[in-house]
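Please think about what follows:
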Amino acid sequence: MALVNHPAGTVLHAPAADVPEFARRYANLAAADFGARVLACSDQWFAAAERMLQASEPVFIVGEFDDHGKWMDGWETRRRRNGGYDHAVIQLGLPGVIKGLDIDTSHFSGNYPPAASVEACRSAGDPDERTEWVEILPAASLGPSAHHFIAIDDARCWTHLRLNIYPDGGVARFRVYGQPVCDWERQDPAVPHEVSALTKGGRIVAYNDAHFGVPFRLLMPGRGVNMGDGWETRRRREPGNDWCIVELGHAALVESIEVDTAHFKGNYPDRISVQAAYVRHGTDQSIVTQAMFWDVLLPEQKTEMDRQHFYGKELLRDLGAVTHVRLNIFPDGGVSRLRIWGRLAD
């Protein structure tokens, strides 16, 4: 693996299976599934820019051609003969703080861009000529048919990105991993909110195992589409149980909890419980230790396969306002969705 260092972070050339923590922990804010879209691009002669926002892995189809030439699964511009470079403006599906990027050139070998940079802005509407763009990734070298993971150290919230490729070529997928940000000032405090939701700023703090699933999908909207759409641990061969800690998007007085085991049939947890606390200080690492001693919000409950489990106030203990919850599963298994509903606390 080759490492290229620059002020914005580290570019890591790696196979798809060897991904950094930010790509495993955070959601792709530029996914078409979240409503991300390409607003404008300088050129898309060979392949439409929208393709690079698809959630699916890119594919290569031998012998597949269309009116513009070889069909490619991604964004590909024509060969630039007049100087300059190509770019695409992308509206993120969810505004958020960017933790890292993946500029994926899979299957683009003789036609990949030698370099790319990324600019960002925060805009209530579509960016225009008056928009001020901020460079979050200076020009970084790219290689053929590879993932290029770039860690971003920037605490600002962004709504749009501009991907620049130098001078032309193809990008299979452009993924923007980050933490969604919710404007709670606009939310009604008098009604319950799904404070654990990814779209409301909920995030995964830590988990002990995620051998088969991606933990952040616990906080996704809707029900899981299949058994791969959720958090699943390996088969436990030793005493104990598995767990996942979630930071709520806003401190809340919890009124109800949903644990959905959709599509998990021979591998759902036998039981679950939920602990919670109001965390005022600490790092993610220290929270893992603190969580072992948090009060129980929902005592152990038996679960069933492929079912939504709802737990109301009659089962929940009154712990006051909480900012974090720990979902315990006994002894192991898979959960599709976790939803925490509550009224906003000061």
